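S1.2 Input.
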Amino acid sequence: MPKEIPVFYNPSSNKHNPQFEVFNCEKKPHPDIYDRISQITDALQTSKIADIQVSTVNNSLPFVSRIHNIDYINFLKETSELVTRICIRDNNPNAAIYPSVHPYNEISRASNSISRRGLYVFDTYTPIMKETSEVALDSAGVAVAGAMLLNNGEKLVYALSRPSGHHAEKAMAGGMCYLNNVAVAAQFLKDQGASKIAIFDIDLHHGNGTQDIFYDRSDVLVVNINADPKYKFPHFTGYADEYGNNEGIGLNYNFPLPLGTDVELYDKTAQQALKIIGDFQPNYLLVSAGFDTHESDPIGAFKLTTLYYKRLGSLIRNLEIPILVVQEGGYSIKVLGDNVVSFLKGLSNK
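S1.3 Output.
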């Protein structure tokens, strides 16, 4: 019988239940619902290709603090505690805090709770709730658990992290992300002795947080294929001329693609991106795997098919590098699990 793919998740993910996002001053249902996780785990169980395990990392703070600013980490904790008190006061278990004002010049200071929200959260898609700090730490712990297995010699591991992480910067939440799971996992592998790590972000939206964290570093290559930020979130980054800075010059690549990108154009671009990764010769490859590139995704813009994810997985597998897949976006609930299974089948040649 073929070996099953190790999969890690944390049941605490179901505590993260944001009700609304605010887009263009409109209150809309939040797309990051817990059913995303159950759909994936159900599909994995049906496929019989995965060994689903609860994360073994019960305290991810030492690993998270290697990437994120400690005051920012404390902000998440203190704000979650504040929301807990609001929930009790208002008898509302789904209370949430959103930023209302952001820094507006170079000498801006954050001296109270309202200003700190604007300093540390860059949009109104990323509410902080009573469980946010705990669940974000657990989500990062899922990625670390996967990295630990990779470090012990496993060739392919899937970290089913939620909330996602690739939009979280060193000291800023946004894009439904609070802590950068893939960056925390990459740093763990570096701390274990890896000389070079590559991160391949295939989410529809540019991984601004991952870029921010590693932009000045020579030991981590970051490659994104993303929707053109002229039209899609996060808008301010994800352009082709962002190559890195200082020691990181030449180690950041973005491939912004037009709205409506189909399988043919995406495949051609993926091969270019993977050539860059192969030439870098990393010890490990971490994949920020978003499936909002699917043709049916409600907030998507590309036309990839479920079948194509298997092809994409096989292209990545051909690099013959140990791989950690870290879950990011994907909001077409009915097909999300099938998309993940298709991708993992390509990666594992099943």
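S1.4 Remarks. Residues 5-348 form a domain with the Arginase; Chain A fold (CATH 3.40.800.20).
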